[in-house]
């Protein structure tokens, strides 16, 4: 029977950054640039997004090796995002299959002429598995399959110009956000028992944290997405479509949902059970990591230039954003690069 843990669980009020940030950032970014996945202008824009900063805020206690794995994962996430945002569902399905094969077989020889996503994924996971716990490796491969399948579904929705209702949107977005993969990164240094991961309270905390991150991300990214996409994969789009309301009322509804979801998380936080002293110490590290992810993601949305450009601080302070005009492209056309052995 579950009992209350003696561990004191606290939601982090302040953020810290991983002390290995600067060193690992240099290594991870140099590694990613070596693939030449983008042209020079697109690579510069990609660099300004600060994906290593996101990882370093989200994993402040990670070892240097595990922070490198997390930084490389962020780069993989977002290069896949760029490569699939305007691709057909069939192409995205090919990419998804290539990526899953790469993750399942990180040392498998790579054929020339295949999309560069494969070698990026293989090298990321080959290095990651060298220091990751066995349970985290198993969970990562499982979650990665769900993630890539959801990216295909997102491409199908875009291709068919399909705007999902709110509930259906969440069904897909809860996978395209990739949060479960990022939570697995919290387990790299230890074997987290299934009794913890699949405990109903922990599952609910994972789900609520995931939804808070979705809502926070969608609020931050909507302006950019509405300018570049006809049918943005965003909760605000679904709310406007289902509720037949304008942007102002949709934003109010999403903000209300954000607050209520966050409050549910905070309430449930007080009900974390005990699994015994040894397991409680591991569970505490994992659950505090989940809570920190919520804070780290919120901070990164404004610290990075991905969504607000150089106006992040002002947008965070004043909570006012000027709606961007519609445009076909944010810059140079994306060139999908292939791998050639040397």
TrEMBL record:
It holds the Pfam family Terpene_syn_C_2. GO terms for molecular function: metal ion binding; terpene synthase activity. Coiled coil: none annotated. Its EC number is 4.2.3.-. InterPro entries: Isoprenoid_synthase_dom_sf, Terpene_cyclase-like_2. Its cofactor is Mg(2+). Gene3D superfamilies: Farnesyl Diphosphate Synthase. Keywords: Lyase, Magnesium, Metal-binding. Transmembrane segments: none annotated. Signal peptide: none annotated. It is an enzyme of class 4 (lyase). GO terms for biological process: isoprenoid biosynthetic process. This is Terpene synthase.
């Amino acid at each position: 029977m579950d009992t209350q843990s003696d561990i004191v669980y606290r939601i982090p009020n302040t953020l810290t950054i991983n002390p290995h940030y600067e060193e690992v950032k240099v290594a991870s970014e140099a590694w990613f640039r070596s693939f030449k996945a983008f042209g020079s202008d697109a690579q510069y824009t990609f660099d300004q997004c600060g994906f290593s900063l996101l990882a370093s805020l989200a994993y402040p206690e990670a070892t240097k090796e595990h922070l490198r794995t997390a930084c490389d994962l962020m780069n993989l996430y977002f290069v896949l995002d760029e490569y699939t945002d305007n691709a057909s569902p069939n192409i995205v399905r090919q990419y998804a299959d290539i990526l899953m094969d790469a993750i399942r077989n990180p040392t498998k020889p790579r054929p020339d002429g295949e999309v560069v996503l494969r070698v990026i994924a293989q090298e990321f996971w080959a290095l990651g598995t060298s220091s990751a716990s066995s349970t985290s490796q198993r969970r990562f491969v499982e979650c990665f399959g769900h993630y890539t399948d959801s990216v295909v579904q997102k491409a199908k929705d875009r291709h068919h110009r399909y705007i999902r209702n709110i509930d259906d949107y969440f069904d897909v977005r809860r996978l395209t956000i990739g949060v479960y993969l990022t939570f697995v990164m919290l387990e790299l240094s230890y074997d987290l028992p299934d009794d913890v991961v699949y405990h109903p309270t922990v599952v609910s905390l994972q789900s609520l944290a995931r939804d808070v991150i979705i809502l926070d991300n969608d609020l931050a990214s909507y302006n950019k997405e509405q300018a570049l996409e006809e049918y943005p994969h965003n909760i605000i789009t679904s709310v406007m479509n289902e509720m037949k309301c304008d942007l102002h009322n949709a934003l109010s509804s999403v903000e209300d949902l954000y607050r209520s979801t966050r409050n549910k998380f905070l309430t449930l936080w007080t009900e974390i059970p005990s699994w015994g002293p040894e397991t409680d110490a591991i569970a505490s590290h994992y659950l505090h990591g989940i809570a920190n992810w919520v804070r780290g993601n919120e901070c990164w949305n404004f610290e990075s230039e991905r969504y607000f450009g150089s106006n992040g601080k002002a947008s965070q302070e004043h909570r006012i954003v000027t709606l961007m005009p519609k445009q076909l492209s944010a810059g140079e056309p994306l060139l999908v690069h292939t791998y050639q052995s040397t």
